[in-house]
Amino acid sequence: MNKKLAAALCSGAALVLALTGCSDDSGKKDEWAKNVCDDLQPQLKKIDEANASIAEASRANKSPDEVKKADSAAFQKVSNAYRAMAKAVQKAGAPPVDNGDKLQKDAVKELNGIAGQYNDLKTAAEKLPTGDKFDEGLDSVAAKLKTLGQNGDKALRELQKGEVGQAMAKQESCKKSRVTQK
């Protein structure tokens, strides 16, 4: 059952991959993109680590209590990472493009919202029953996680469009592969 959580977390982490952009531009956009990409990379690593801990809990055939603990800790780690990403985008300032203030504001709001939703998943994981209904409860958490992964990337896609996305694509820290999908 926990494999569903791992798969859903992986798709949720793909939201952040929207920040990897496409090809060319210069100057202030490049500087802005470097600041953002450099600050995001450690957080993306934390999301990968959380994903790995959920996958490990499912492979290790752990008890319901151990799975709850692993999932709760992973969701907290992801929540913290998204909050840190929001702070990084906020700290970088508005991207130097038309409508940059709105792009920044929307991305920060979305990242903080995603952080809150992962915090809610942490709470849901902590409340899972450990008896006969454990698998059913775990399925419910996995469904919420899958929905989060599918619905939460509009502002991030907007941020990576056009000139900003082109500048981000040039940054080595935005090019690094994050999620190894099988």
Automatic annotation (TrEMBL):
PROSITE patterns, alphabetized: PROKAR_LIPOPROTEIN
Protein name, as recorded: Small secreted protein
Lineage of the species this protein comes from: Bacteria, Bacillati, Actinomycetota, Actinomycetes, Kitasatosporales
